[in-house]
Specification:
The structure holds three protein chains of three kinds.
Chain A: H1 9-12, E1 19-30, E2 33-40, H2 43-48, E3 56-61, E4 65-70, E5 81-86, H3 90-96, E6 103-110, H4 116-119, E7 123-129, H5 137-145, E8 153-159, H6 171-176, E9 180-185, E10 195-196, H7 199-205, E11 214-219, H8 222-234, E12 242-245, E13 261-262, E14 265-266, H9 267-270, E15 273-275, H10 276-283
Parallel strand pairs in A: 7-8, 7-11, 8-9, 9-10, 11-12
Antiparallel strand pairs in A: 1-2, 1-6, 2-5, 3-4, 3-6, 12-15, 13-14
Helix pairs in contact in A: 7-8
Chain B: E1 5-10, H1 16-23, H2 25-34, E2 36-39, E3 52-58, H3 64-76, E4 77-83, H4 85-89, H5 101-108, E5 132-134, H6 141-153, H7 164-171, H8 176-180, H9 216-225, H10 230-237, H11 245-254
Helix pairs in contact in B: 2-6, 10-11
Chain C: E1 5-6, E2 12-16, H1 17-29, E3 33-40, E4 43-48, E5 59-64, E6 67-72, H2 89-92, E7 96-105, E8 108-113, E9 121-126, H3 128-142, H4 149-157, E10 159-163, H5 174-177, E11 189-194, E12 197-202, H6 205-212, E13 216-217, H7 221-237, H8 247-252, H9 258-266, H10 272-276, E14 283-289, E15 295-302, E16 312-313, E17 316-317, H11 322-341, H12 351-354, H13 362-373
The chains are: A alpha/beta, B alpha/beta, C alpha+beta.
Chain lengths: 288, 262, 374
């Protein structure tokens, strides 16, 4: 049946083949978390590589496998690609064993991105839990680069402990550039003067923004995102103003292996960023 | 860098799992290259004292002496891995659990007074913390090599947890239960043998033990519907992994002896 | 005799048994690997054929939930069975295939495609429900922004010779899914078996070209009537009815229905239904490395949403019960598939019913939910 298929053959050439990436720099963030600056070794590939905030790459260690990691750097500068990685499984622990100059595989970028156009002219509240901040950071850079185009900008960030907060060295600059930052931790430690409690409380207490003119972007564990969205709805926002970045077992990254399904969505290609009304019916079903 | 020190210990078992390791000659040589095998009575006369980086344990605990010895092995070993049905579930010898072992001894030995055994044959994990379990009767040598390679590379070993059925389908074996009415434990058994027996028209014997979340009750009900007696089904579960909890509970339930000895 | 021999492009023609027997050498001489029904392991499976003698002449299959048996027919029909445990998925989306290779060099890791020879298949004996299944997998593997080249290449080179069903099994429900039993599209040639030969419908130039190497005859009105009757027999034998009205909403609004707990009591989570399903497409990739670790292949294998670790994420399992895994399979197959690919994922072939070791019948599971609604 030559007629029915075959038109897209040229697109298919390399969806499974990784490109060689070289580790340029490794910066420890917090315990068990580090940011890897990668550059594609092939000059043409490096030149043409672009990503949108919220998208991810598949990083590949031959023998160990692939892992989906969001880009955490500035999309305006793709010279090196930042990936903030938490050491959790076989692949990320294998990455942890690498040093500057070592190579690994990279496929990407994949997935949907944060809704930049929807945010224009609006207040933007970014809500992150723990290692949910890295997928938002590229968007923070993008918002601050064109600060005038948005209303108020807030980052509400929750971490387990004060020591587990990432990117703290950048907070002063972000504040100076017009991002309000509110933080909370689950467990306090000596010297911590900020909030103790869960992230949705930060949103409940947030004042000085018009809910009707606000876009809310959330990245964190499923439960945290659901409670944060609920708090937003109680503040008078609608599901159409809320966006979440979901996570499931992403393996092929192109919607062909079936692992990452949540209801009708393939998280890898239909997500990871969804408008809340699209994904919330499925997010709230236990074990779906 | 010093090579990791590997030791292989035998408890109550048939040696088959150790032989699987020896069978994997080519791979073993490369393993031997990356490791220092310092204790492996089945293969060498070299017997160095601990500590060991990796200890492979074959066999179950069935004597007071072994119960004490495994404690010492644990103290001497950084990573302790059990290999085979005896070590992971108690082995075929666990059939004696709950039975009158004194009676067995009288039947077998002229002077049973010399024999000192425990009432039960139990898996290693009942006695000490086990870092990784490799199932099978015997183990799959390729899985063992994969596990050792993973440990050397600092990875968590990957051994599949799916049912035997998936392997039958991948290799093109037609389901012998559905097409021929042959009773098979494949749907409730963890893979590891590449679905060997069904490819020879034999039902799975459950050598790799129960798959996780295995639904024994449903399968045995179907076997009953297909004409097998409760005793026959129970017998089929009382094999090399008879003491694995899922198999043990179901064979007891079938014979209406919940929690009681056979 | 000569009068009735056609040489070019017949829309429908007749092929005698002897000429049909020559089809094998024609296909093989044109470089095709012929895959079709043959008896193996007490079942009619799809395997490599070299001649008409490899076909299951005089055999049929009897099917019911959890049971399949080969039975002798009282005639010499070559395609007198329904569907077996295998499907063409095995050829188009192989159980194991290598996607890519990685080699460690002095400059670090190098990655490349795993070039595998693409076999040129001639599929002989494709049923209407299986044509529908191929169309569904076409959408899955080639219809979106990312195309699976392994599937695409195998599919585009394959010649499809369909054979209309002339009987049905108790597990068949293609009429409910509107996929059969008549082969209507998606083939190069479609045959209907008669006692002394085959009625042949020609749908494509590729099909016509194969036929040009064979002597064909005009179809007589009697043959036409016979063929219609044979095909109607299949329709008449289909007893299973499956109400698919609003099935997407029915299932998605009943995600917490007690029936999921009920079926979980019976389901073995053994993966058999997903493996025999001609549309299930889930897979996993395994790293296969040599002993040095310097040469690694990425091997794709069939996987199943019934496997416990299929939904593993961040040290936990999303679907950590048989209930949740069965619910995922059924709702995907019959409901969310429609969102994803515009059609149901089910073609009504009944394989998942026959090949379930405990005979779970998905149509009954859905019916139970539907009945509780009304």
């Amino acid at each position: 049946m030559n007629s029915t298929v075959g038109k897209q053959a040229e697109k298919s050439d390399s969806i499974w083949v990784a490109k060689t990436a070289v580790i340029h720099e490794i910066a420890a963030e917090v315990s068990g978390v580090a940011t890897y600056q990668l550059s594609l070794r092939d000059a043409a590939a490096a030149q043409s590589y672009r990503f949108e905030p919220g998208q991810f790459n598949m990083l590949y260690i031959p023998g160990a496998g692939e892992s989906a990691i969001s880009m955490s750097g500035d999309p305006a500068d793709c010279g090196t690609l930042a990936h903030t990685i938490r050491l959790a499984g076989n692949v990320t622990r294998s990455i942890a064993a690498l040093k500057v100059g070592d190579t690994l595989g990279l496929r990407g970028p994949f997935g949907t991105s944060w809704p930049r156009e929807d945010c224009r002219g609006k207040n933007v509240i970014l809500v992150a839990g723990g290692i949910g901040l890295p997928p938002l950071r590229p968007f923070i850079y993008q918002l601050l680069a064109q600060r005038d185009e948005y209303g108020s900008l807030h980052l509400l960030y929750g971490a387990r402990t004060p020591e587990m907060r990432v990117y703290t060295r950048e907070y002063d600059r972000w504040r100076a550039e017009g991002l309000e930052i509110r933080e909370t931790v689950d467990r306090s430690s000596p010297g911590w003067r900020g909030n103790v409690g869960v992230v949705p409380q930060l949103l409940e207490r947030l004042t000085g923004f018009d809910p009707a003119e606000t876009i809310l972007l959330i990245c964190g564990p499923d439960l945290m995102m659901r409670f944060t969205a609920r708090a937003a709805l109680q503040r008078g926002m609608t599901s159409e103003q809320i966006w979440v970045s979901t996570e499931r077992n992403m393996q092929c990254a192109v919607g062909l292996c079936g692992h990452c399904q949540l209801g009708p969505e393939f998280i890898c290609k239909d997500g990871p960023v969804f408008r809340y009304d699209q994904i919330s019916p499925y997010l709230k079903v236990e074990g779906l | 860098m010093e090579k990791p020190r590997l030791a292989v210990f035998k408890f109550a078992s048939c040696d088959g799992c150790q032989l699987s390791l020896l069978d994997a000659e080519d791979q073993l040589l490369s393993v031997a290259d990356a490791l220092e095998i310092v204790y492996f009575p089945e293969a060498t006369s070299r017997m160095e004292a601990g500590p060991y980086d990796i200890a492979l344990i074959e066999g179950s605990i069935s004597t007071p002496h072994d119960a004490a010895r495994i404690q010492q092995v644990r103290r001497d070993s950084r990573f302790l891995m059990t290999i085979g049905a005896c070590a992971t579930s108690g082995g075929i010898q666990a059939l004696r659990n709950g039975a009158d072992s004194a009676e067995f001894m009288r039947a077998v030995y002229a002077s049973p007074g010399y024999i000192e055994v425990l009432d039960q044959s139990t898996p290693i994990a009942d006695h000490v913390t086990v870092d990784f379990e490799l199932r099978g009767c015997p183990i799959n040598q390729y899985q063992l090599i994969e596990v050792i390679q993973s440990l050397l590379a600092g990875r968590t070993p990957r051994t599949p947890g799916h049912s035997v059925c998936l392997d039958c389908k991948r290799r093109g074996t037609v389901c012998i239960t559905v097409a021929q009415g042959i009773a098979c434990l494949g749907p409730v058994t963890q893979s590891g043998c590449n679905a060997l027996c069904p490819s020879y028209n034999r039902g799975c014997y459950g050598c790799f033990g129960p798959a996780s979340q295995s639904n024994l009750v449903s399968l045995t009900s179907q076997m009953e519907q297909d004409g097998a007696s409760k005793q026959e089904i129970s017998n089929s579960l009382q094999n090399f992994n008879n003491n694995a909890p899922a198999f043990r509970e179901e064979s007891r339930r079938l014979l209406d002896r919940n929690g009681e000895p056979y | 005799m000569n009068d009735s021999v056609q040489s070019v492009d017949p829309e429908t023609c007749f092929l005698t048994l002897d000429e049909f027997a020559r089809l094998f050498e024609v296909l093989i001489s044109r470089g095709y690997e012929v895959i079709g029904p043959t008896i193996d392991q007490e079942a009619i499976v799809y395997g490599q054929l070299s001649s008409i003698d490899d076909l299951p002449r005089g055999w049929t299959d009897q099917q019911e939930p959890g049971k399949y048996r080969l039975v002798r027919r009282d005639d010499n029909a070559l395609f007198g069975y329904v569907v077996g445990p295998s499907s063409w998925k095995k050829q188009l989306f192989p159980p194991v295939s290598t996607l890519a290779r990685a080699d460690r060099t002095e400059e670090g890791w190098q990655f490349q495609e795993a070039k595998e020879e693409t076999p040129r298949y001639a599929f002989l004996g494709v049923r209407a429900c299986e044509l529908a299944a191929m169309k569904i997998q076409d959408r899955v593997f080639t219809g979106g922004p990312y195309v699976d080249s392994i599937y695409e290449q195998r599919r585009s080179q394959a010649l499809v010779i369909a054979v209309n069903c002339t009987q049905a099994a108790s597990t068949c429900f293609c009429t409910s899914m509107e996929t059969g039993p008549r082969c209507k599209a998606g083939f190069d040639l479609a045959l209907t078996e008669l006692p002394d030969g085959f009625l042949v419908e020609v749908a494509t130039a590729a099909g016509a070209e194969i036929l040009s190497d064979l002597q064909t005859m005009k179809v007589s009105p009697e043959q036409d009537t016979q063929a219609n009757a044979a095909r109607q027999q299949a329709v008449d034998q289909i007893e299973r009815r499956f109400d698919t009205t609003d099935i997407k909403d029915l299932l998605m609004s009943n995600l917490e229905h007690p029936r999921w707990d009920d079926v979980a009591e019976r389901c073995l989570s053994c993966t058999n239904c997903t493996m025999v399903c001609p549309t299930c497409f889930c897979s996993s990739v395994e790293e296969v490395s040599d002993l040095t670790g310097d040469h690694v292949e990425r091997q794709r294998q069939w996987d199943s949403c019934f496997n416990l670790d299929f939904s593993y994420m961040n040290g936990g399992l999303v679907r950590n019960s048989i209930r949740n895994r069965y619910r995922q399979w059924l709702t995907h197959k019959l409901a969310t598939w429609i969102d994803q690919f515009g059609t149901s994922g089910c073609v009504g072939c009944g394989r998942c019913i026959t090949w379930c070791p405990v005979g779970i019948d998905l149509t009954q599971e859905v019916n139970a939910i539907r009945e509780s609604e009304s």
